[in-house]
Amino acid sequence: MHNFRVWAPRARTIAVRIGDAVHALQPAERGWWSGDVEEAGPGTDYWFVIDGGDPIPDPRSQFQPLGINGPSRLIDHSSFPWSDHNWQAKPLSSAVVYELHIGTFTRQGRFKSAMERLDYLVDLGITHIEIMPVAEFSGDWGWGYDGVDLYAPHHAYGTPDDLKALVNTCHAKGLAVILDVVYNHLGPLGNYLERFGPYFTKDYKTPWGAAVNLDHRGSHEVRRFLSDNAVMWLRDYHFDGLRLDAVHAFYDRSAVHFLEYLSAEVDALASQLGRYLMLIAESDLNDPRIVTGREGGGFGMDAQWSDDFHHALHSVLTGETNGYYEDFGSFSHMEKALKRAYVYDGAFSEHRERLHGRPVIGLSGHHFFGYSQNHDQIGNRARGERLSQLVNVGRQKIAAALVLMSPFVPMLFQGEEFGASSPFQYFTHHEDKELARAVSEGRRGEFAVFGWKPEDVPDPQDFETLQRSKLRWDEIGRPPHSEILAWYKQLIALRRSNSQLTDGNLEGVEVRCDESARWFVMKRGDFEVVCNLAAGRQAVPVTRTSKDVICSSPEYDVRPGLIDLPADSVAILR
């Protein structure tokens, strides 16, 4: 027997359909409906029927084996044989994070196949993996940011037990697992929530349509819907944390902002489970309140992605100053990002044509993820070029050194550690022909304003766009990929073995640079990271002479107060 419950304040009648049988539910409190069905249990496929209409999936469906428009399936979360009972994730302060996409991380693109590469990540020195969204979305492949069944792992990746097995195996190998979740919008196909209740409001607009209802009538249940989802991933799937997509697209005038509310819920769960749990936000607000504790008037997120650091580093390495990169491009921007986290902390942004952000005061660098690449910054390009397709090997090594020696929590994007040749392009598999056409045309139109010819922009709906984006693991044994991989391993090992590199002390970061000579030096404790970004060899001043040198090129020379470096190289002196 199973007790079905669903929040459907807009329904006059609601029933559960199992096969040809229909079982009426009874109204309960505040728009909820419930009822027991004797023959239902784990493995049962079912639908909800509202006011005698067509059958539709459960908003809290635990599994959609036939996709977004198929029946929901009951599963028993208690039946999985977990073996991670004494597991505790390492704190973010000691983390090296690896972002991956299940569908392109391996050729098979499934939860089970990802398990085959975990030993590689352990050997690399990774402590946490961050998985891009896996909630059920339209079609068999996609980025995952247009999910519609937030409680159901995507059917094409495997079963719920397959996902649990992946997390369980990660824990057995010492890897924590963070899941990317999307609460700011739902995808356009298979989104039946509005038939049940006021999950959205037209009073606010997001880039993807109507905003999720966080502060209007019925919002208490919408907030509960999202919070319960977060709790499910952490409790039933044993994830160690969640990454919240684009929290700047949350519109919430409540006295208790949804982020603060969710933070309190997760803290309560952590206390109950006796496990360390973490919340990471993506935000372009440059507002330190997001990562300030609730007791200090903040929202209580543990960390946030730091796009200012990425933009500053990327623009210096590539010379790109178009789009949002127009606010960056100088060594001074990179210096400020390393010392203050936000470059725009109340400063005037030319790109936004207004003042942006507020200063970070008294916060550790552990509240910010630092990276030279991620899925957005690669995939939002017309052709999805990685840094390895934009700069030479020397500059890739400089990027790695500045990320992994930074005061932030370093994050890598799958394949960057060996300079993967595969791009990461935007791909979708919408089965609705009209939407598929609109997505393809919209993508081409987006880049047409920048002078791109339509035929030069990969079609998101083309299967080959997905295939091109899959990692080519046979590259790791060949130069220059093997050379880059060895460099990353060396840097990660250095970071993890020295507390001066993991202390998160922004106040302790010292920077010296010469914009015209194109050299940049970051000092942290006893370490100096010396970068030569000039077109030729030059001697760069250092504060002390050291024989303990790690260099991206063997052709360096240390002299009193100087290190002589080839073009596009970096040395770390201790």
Describe this structure in words.
The chain is an alpha/beta fold. Among the domains are: 2-55, Immunoglobulin-like (Sandwich); 509-573, Immunoglobulin-like, CATH 2.60.40. It has 14 helices and 29 strands. The strands form 8 sheets. It has an 8-stranded parallel beta barrel with strand order 8-9-12-15-16-17-20-21. Strands 22-23-24-29-26 form a 5-stranded antiparallel sheet, covered by helices on one side. The protein has a 4-stranded antiparallel sheet with strand order 3-2-6-7, with no helix packed on it. Helix 11 runs parallel beside helix 14. The longest helix is centred in the middle third of the chain and has 18 residues, at 219-236.
Short description:
By secondary structure, this protein is of the alpha/beta class. A hairpin with a 2-residue loop joins β2 (14-18) and β3. The model has no long low-confidence stretch (mean pLDDT 97).
Descriptors:
574 residues, alpha/beta, Immunoglobulin-like, eight-stranded parallel beta barrel
Report Rg: 25 Å
CATH-level-2 architecture of the domain at 509-573? Sandwich
Q: How helix-rich are the residues, as a percent range? A: 10-25%
CATH topology of the domain at 509-573: Immunoglobulin-like
The assigned structural class equals alpha/beta
User: How much beta, percentage-wise?
Assistant: 15-25%
Task: Say how many strands there are.
Answer: 29
Spans with pLDDT under 50 lasting ≥5 residues? Answer: none
What separation lies between the terminal Cα atoms?
A: 66 Å
Task: Give the SSE map.
Blueprint: E1 2-7, E2 14-18, E3 21-24, E4 26-27, E5 32-37, E6 45-50, E7 72-73, E8 97-100, H1 102-105, H2 111-114, H3 118-124, E9 128-131, E10 135-137, E11 147-153, H4 160-172, E12 176-181, H5 193-196, E13 200-206, E14 209-212, H6 219-236, E15 241-244, H7 258-273, E16 278-281, E17 303-305, H8 307-318, H9 331-340, E18 347-349, E19 354-356, E20 368-370, H10 375-379, H11 393-404, E21 409-413, H12 433-448, H13 463-468, H14 481-496, E22 509-514, E23 519-524, E24 527-532, E25 538-541, E26 549-551, E27 557-559, E28 562-565, E29 569-573
Parallel strand pairs: 8-9, 8-21, 9-12, 12-15, 15-16, 16-17, 17-20, 20-21
Antiparallel strand pairs: 1-5, 2-3, 2-6, 4-5, 6-7, 10-11, 13-14, 18-19, 22-23, 23-24, 24-29, 25-28, 26-29, 27-28
Helix pairs in contact: 6-7, 8-9, 11-14
